[in-house]
Each structure stands twice: as C-alpha cells, then as structure tokens.
Amino acid sequence: MSDILDPSTVSPEFVKEGADWLAVFNPNVPRVMDVKLLSKFVHDKVVCSAKLSPDGRTLAVGLDGGVRLYDVATEQRVALVSENAAGETGRNYVRSVAWSPDGRLLASGSEDKLVRVWSFANRELVHTFSGHQREVYALDFTLDSNTLISASGDRTLRLWDVSPSAPSEQTGKRVLAVEDDRNNPNTAITTVAASPDGKHVASGALDGTVRVWDISADEGKGKAVVRWQAHEQGVYSLRFVLQGKGLVTGSLDQTLKRWELGFMSGAENSCVKTLVGHKDCVLGVATLQEGQVLRAASASRDGTIRLWDLKTGQTLFLVQGHRSTVTSVDLNSDSSLLVSGSGDGEARIWKYSIF
Description:
By secondary structure, the chain is an all-beta fold. It is 0% helix and 52% strand. Keywords: Repeat, WD repeat.
C-alpha cells in the first residue's frame, strides 16, 4: 500500500522543507497546518529521552551520565544533573526522564538500576531509589505528584513515595511483579503510565502485552487486574487518554493503537483505531487532549515523527529531521510544541499550528 505522505510522491504544496528537515502534511485533512524548527540541542551522545517541564519553559534531556536542562526561551543550558558519583566512569545511560505534574521534581531512570529524583528549584538530589535488578526503562508520576512509578527489565514496577515528607532512600513502597511467564525474558516491562485518577497503572512489555494494575488496593505486592495481547511485538510506549477510559499504545510492530478500556465495567478492552504509517518500530508516544481535540505524537526508528488525530486515525503530518532513530517524543499542553530526541545526539523543539 502506497504511503499518502511519501515526500517523493505527494504534491509539492503539501511539503515544507527546512535547511535539514522536511514536513509532509496530509492532503486528505482539510486543515491549514504548519511546522517549523524552533530549537536544536546538539550532543555527542544518544538522546534517550527528552521531556518538557509542565510549564513548557525547561527541556530535560536524558543522556549517558546525566540529564541536561535547557531554557526553552534562550536555548541555553541551565544545569547538568549527574548520574555518576564523583570519579565514577563507564556507560550509564539515562533511559527515561519524567517531570512531576506540579513541576516540583525531575526524575531519571538509568542503566545502573537506580531511580534518582531532583528538586527542580535548587537542582538538588533529594531521592536515590534502589531495588530494581535490571535497567530502569520508564517512569511516570501520579497526577498528585506524590508517587513515582518505575518500570524495569526485571519484570517489575515499583511505586515510590515522593511526597515532601518522604524518606530520601527507599526500596519501593509497593512492588508490582509479572508473576505469570516469569521465565519469559520478553516480559521485561518497557513502559508505564499512571491513570489520571491515580487508581491504576498501565504497563507494556516486550512480548506485546499490556497490563493494568490497581494501585488503590492494600499495600504490598499487587497483581494486574487485566492483561491482554495488544500488539504482535513489544509495546514500547503507552499513555492514558479520555480521563483514563482509553489507552494509546506504540509498538515494535510499527503501529499505534487506541483502546477503549472496558475492564472496570466488566467489558472487553477493545481496539477502536489502529494507526498505520511508520515504516519501522514505534519507540515513543505522547498524547494531548484539549477540548474536543485528541492527538498523539509518535517517534520511530524510521527517523520520523508523526502527529495523529486519534479520533480519525489519520496522520496530520510527519516531520523528517533526524539522521537516526527518533527515540523520544513529547507534546506541550497548549498544542504548540513538539519535542523529539534521537540517536543522532540531537533534541529538537518543533513549533506547529493546526487551524
């Protein structure tokens, strides 16, 4: 099937070219759209994760050895929070960064199996969390900013108390473990998302399964309340949408899917849209809901970023600007900025408009 957004075949009026990038707009979408490159942050190491602060003023970039913080307005680096202890050498990639919704905290998860949490106001390390037995792949905060959830290759999720009165070092106030298929290495958990009401956590694994866990239950070990085969290959990113009633997943099978979650009412979880267009693995997903607008951005190993209309399943536009895999994607809350991180060592901020 031909790709309607193939820049070599689409009409030139739907293509915009920059110095080292191009955008292709879907000719079947009757909207006026524009994209431009706003900022470029260059590093000599792979960018594993790039996330905007809740107020959109600061960009956090996870790299080997630490997290770099940039002022979005001035494009200047304002801080480097280090992962390695003084004198420590060796590779230690930050696989994930996450901001607390209140902007108070910045968290990182790394290959050294540790979760670190900094106070953003004074750039001080306030928590170092140990307990995972493998790399930490993903992080997310609950909406109240008091709990941090980490996902690891050790097949567990850990919940950490990051409230202002929490102890600085912990092993996790709760551990959610994949008990079934425990001998299957493909049950490594690669992504995690907290529901808006703080009662559930969704996780995706290398075997293509998605689990939803109830974290409102008693303390201690928890079990998934529902598990299903969401994709043919690994799920690398997921986000809740529609006030927790829906889920968007991105997979190594090159697709995104939008799910209606029916488990809370005893119904099946159903796939309502399959988003097809990427030519390689989908590694990152970000979502945005503003009024009636419901969108997702995706990062892929094919070197592109796509912005999708989650209601129609259509790609609105794609951007090609990185020289390698796009590892990370983020959207700001006012529908104007798109962030991408890549294996080429760059983090980029794109400004877009849709009328």
